[in-house]
Specification:
Rossmann fold, 7-stranded antiparallel beta sheet, 7-stranded mixed beta sheet, 6 helices, 16 strands, binds FE2/S2 (inorganic) cluster
């Protein structure tokens, strides 16, 4: 982990309320593992001392990028950043996704900007599998060509039917599992809203299949000191607290007490 002054290389809206911010950050970019995140100090937002966490979407040589959705004060203000300006980032943070286990077939499941945490998994995996992308509408389905260019099959679902199959991402997953699942030994890599994580974890448990889930609990410090981000995980017959920013954000889905996750 290091604190680095990054320089904006490119910054533009991509679709709907999503933006792509590419920055030069050689120190952080060199160490990134899939599923890790950076903690960003939003410039021009001096009254807000808290940094904002974002998954590292891509890391190429000395640069890295994040893909973020405008949801509030920080992400709205971030959009003012112009190429050449600098911003303070802390990273790479957290425990990311492991490599796909030997003999398993990787299955990525993403809701909305969840695909940002999965791009490096897709890029670095020696086995190219299948990716399920879901969202409310077409505006929430991002970067399908980028995943396809890496050799992944991408299946899209939207709740309003504006792109791909109408329904939930887990509907498409269920259909695929019934059709092809038994021919593979799926291993799930999941990032998205809590409900989607729970639904994917339940399917993994029912089918006794390994699953790795990235939670995006609200964060304060991002480095394990404030306990803002804790969730309950199993500890033998009992449970204990784990910090999403340090022990996560990626957890073995079997370890999380899903019924307790906010
Ligand atoms: C490990 C991790 C990785 C993340 N990766 C990405 C990413 O790649 N792209 C991206 O767009 N966002 C990502 N997020 C979420 C992002 O951090 C929040 O959207 C951002 O901090 C909101 O800041 P804000 O000041 O704009 O919103 P605020 O003004 O702080 O909040 C606006 C609204 O967003 C909600 N909100 C705030 N933080 C979160 C959160 N963590 N999850 C869900 N809702 C939240 C608030 O409850 C509120 O309703 C990630 C979060 C975590 C913890
Ligand atoms: S955000 Fe402070 S401990 Fe995790």
């Amino acid at each position: 982990m290091q604190l680095e002054q990054a320089t904006v290389i490119a910054h533009a809206p991509i679709q709907g309320s999503y933006n792509l911010l590419q920055m030069r950050a050689p120190g952080v970019a060199a160490r990134v593992q899939p599923g890790q995140f950076i903690h960003v100090k939003v410039p021009y937002l001096e009254e807000c001392i808290l940094r904002r966490p974002f998954s590292i979407f891509r890391a190429d040589g000395e640069s890295l990028s994040i893909l973020y959705k405008d949801v509030g004060k920080g992400t709205r203000t971030l959009q003012y950043l112009e190429p050449g300006e600098s911003l303070s980032i802390l990273g790479p943070l957290g425990h990311g996704f492991p490599e796909v286990s030997a003999g398993h077939f990787p299955v990525l499941i993403a809701g909305g900007y969840g695909m940002a945490a999965l791009y490096l998994v897709a890029q670095r995996s020696p086995v190219k599998g299948v990716a399920f992308f879901g969202g409310r509408s077409a505006q929430d389905i991002l970067c399908v060509p980028e995943f396809e260019a890496l050799g992944w099959k991408v299946l899209v679902t939207t709740e309003d039917g504006s792109l791909g199959q109408r329904g939930l991402v887990t509907d498409a997953l269920d259909a695929w599992w019934a059709r092809e699942g038994s021919a593979h030994s799926p291993e799930l890599f999941v990032c998205g809203p809590g409900g989607m994580l729970k639904a994917a974890a339940r399917r993994a448990e029912e089918r006794n299949c390994p699953a790795w889930t990235s939670v995006d609990n609200n964060m304060g410090c991002g480095v394990g000191a404030c306990l803002t981000c804790v969730l309950k995980v199993k500890d033998g017959e009992s449970w204990t607290w784990a910090r999403a920013c340090r022990e996560g954000p990626v957890f073995n889905s079997r370890d999380i007490l899903w019924e307790e996750l906010a």
